[in-house]
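Appendix C reproduces, verbatim, an entry submitted by the partner laboratory led by Prof. M.T., so that reviewers can inspect both the input and the predicted structure.
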Amino acid sequence: MPIPDLTLQQLRAVRTLAASGSFTKAAAAEHISQSVLSRRIKEVERLLRVRLFDRTTRQIDTTAAGQAFLLMTGAVLDDMDLRLSRFMSYVAAQSGTIAVAALPSLAAAVLPEMIRGFMLDHPEVEFEIIDGAADDVVERLAGGTVELGLTAHGDLRDNFCFEPLLREQFFGVAHRGHHWSTQKSISWSDFKGETVLATRPGTSIRAITDAAFSEYSISVSERFNACSAATIRGLLRAGVGVAALPALEVQGFGLDDLVAVPVDSPEATRVIGVAYHCSQDLSPVAARFLDFMHAAEIDSPRGVSRVQVDDTSEDTLTSSGCSSEHEVCLKP
């Protein structure tokens, strides 16, 4: 015997009529007319080839078959209602998981306060945070394991969008006994003749410092390519050399025995923001968090400032065919 193809509307009509015992009350509860409700009940009985209700002039009674039908289908309706409720919560950006890949400095200094503020109104939202270098963030985005990437503006892949959030000043960092400790600022040219400690290739810091050092013909010691800022910090404290680092990296150091002097030279800044696929819609909760990050107040540390949309020059960011008011699309 073939299984009847019943709709959720029909199942709900049967349950509501059985609960109310009245076509008038059931139709009002379902927000339909009595004639529509009657047609739905008759169609269900026709498809099932059994009478579900005994109709008299005074009342509606559920038959034994009707009771069995309700027992078997009630769990389906309850489960569907629960799942639809959860889905509507997801659509309303009140639940879901936000997967974010972020530079370590952003994961430590920027994300925590933003997440705390966001969860005040979105307590059911979960976060998955993966920290890594700029190339790691791009790989995560490209592989689809995260929706958002907090990284520096740079050579992103085609069809990635970038929305700037902050601009960081670069600092020359050295042991406190270094002669930079007596200076209020330095320039890129002051790195000449120094043992420069560099982050590994593939990091956002290395891309910026390589470009600056190339322009000023500054050689970087190939003996020291550190994988982490913590390693550079240890080398600096040992007095091995100097480093050029953006503000949020320096913030995490603690400067008891180090000195950080602003680099007063062109391009001595790093623009950081959010990257994502231009061609793919963000999940509702990720889109809501992206908007929140733009609107949230940030207690900016030394050398860090908010980036306004109109503050990004054509030399810094390339815009093309974007729909968001914040959006900067990077395309060939």
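The longest strand covers residues 160-175. Additional entries are available on request from the coordinating office.
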